[in-house]
Amino acid sequence: MKYFTTTSKASRRAVDCVVVGVYRRGKLGVAASEINTTSKGHISNLIKSGDVSGDAGRVAVLNNVPGVRASRLVVVGLGKSGGLNASSFRKAVATATRAISNTKTKQILNCLTLEPVANCGIYYLARHSVESISDTLYNFDQMKSGRKKAAMPLNTIGFAIAKRGDATKATRGAEHGDGISAGVALAKDLGNLPANVCTPSYLARVAKKLANGNGKLSARALNETEMKKLGMGSLLSVTAGATEPGKLIVMQYKGAGSDKPVVLVGKGVTFDTGGISLKPGAGMDEMKFDMCGAASVIGTMAAVSKMKLPINLTVVVPAVENMPAGNATRPGDIVNSMSGQTIEVLNTDAEGRLILCDALTYSKRFKPAAIIDVATLTGACVVALGHHRCAIYSNNDDLRNEIFASSNSSQDLGWPMPLGEQYAAQLKSNFADMANIGGPGGGSVTAACFLEKFVDDMTWAHLDIAGVAWRSGAQKGASGRPVSLLSEFVLSRAGALP
Ligand code: BES
Ligand code: MN
Ligand code: ZN
Question: Is residue 104 annotated as part of the catalytic site, yes or no?
Fold first, then answer.
């Protein structure tokens, strides 16, 4: 994608499509106002006739508007005047994009970046625009046979800016949006692929392919024999019943010499049947999305290496299938984790924590500046926070606040959640050092407490993304979250934000 910025009038640019906004009560946005004057009231007439509206969600595609050089003018409703925020801004861009997604538009000039948006400078307006356009145009049809839907041939996105001094920030926002969007799209693809394609070995191949030919990025995968030598009895107990071999994928990006790395650990259960504690059949297909934590950290690595950020980033993905079989782990079995702690597996469906705990212990060797694990860990998290925000846990107040702030500025929202001795006590086992479930009540919290037992002195956070990683129903599909949040966190740590 090519990007440009412009201070010239919206009516003067001969692009395929110009996007402008109008507010309720006939209030015109900056570029809509200019075009309305040039066209001698064309837009205000259409507002009077009801063809154009300032209501959020409304959109009109106008061709051949008098005095406008662009062949298409998209007029999108922005709601109440003065009421735009990052969320409604992104929605307006998405609405405009959807309205032209079946056209042959190659260039878009987005003039919504001239509008005032609460807590959002030109860098974020450009970045949110790119992310929102890419998110809207994403289409997954690689598993369909026959003729595929032709994608809109978009190759250029321009941004209207008020003054030349905004150009650098707008361009940087667009470039970062471009890198993040590539990471989001990769995470969506990996999530959407079925479990018979996206196996642990497939994830390992994707990681190696990303590193191929990139001097700053390396990738390798440990096999089950190597994991056994390391003492990863907990991880291996999950993959015991599976025919597909488990992998521990390690990716290292070196953009900042010998600095301590940020380490991202992603749950990579390529299919979660529950194991012997078998899940009910209805909706079980959605457990192909149980590797969305892995997809999001691999996607973030793709974004960070595309943005060439000056930081060290390590990604660790424990990748397994959780299957029932004659040699599968039984409820009540006791396993030895790499940390030396023993675990009573009271429920084989609480498998995410069993692979993550060994991945966390393994990650200590990287001496992380901060370590964040990302997992579709508990149904309880969906009960607690629904599908809007992921849960943010940390053993460090500053890190928790930092991630919460990144979630707000990226609009990939999370919410801080508690840890604590009272919750951790629910994991008591009569036979081993701990059980892998904490009983009824606070299921997302007790899962986080389980992980905390394996982080020692690392500065650690855990994101439970069970509610946000994919959508169910008619729009079923991976969301690519929380690639934007994680990228924002890394951008901030790399000192790359304005
Ligand atoms: N992958 C699931 C969590 C999940 C369930 C995410 C539904 C999104 C939607 C996880 O492995 C799991 O099965 N967790 C159990 C834990 C329980 C046995 C303590 C759960 O949440 O039911
Ligand atoms: Mn499970
Ligand atoms: Zn799971």
Answer: no
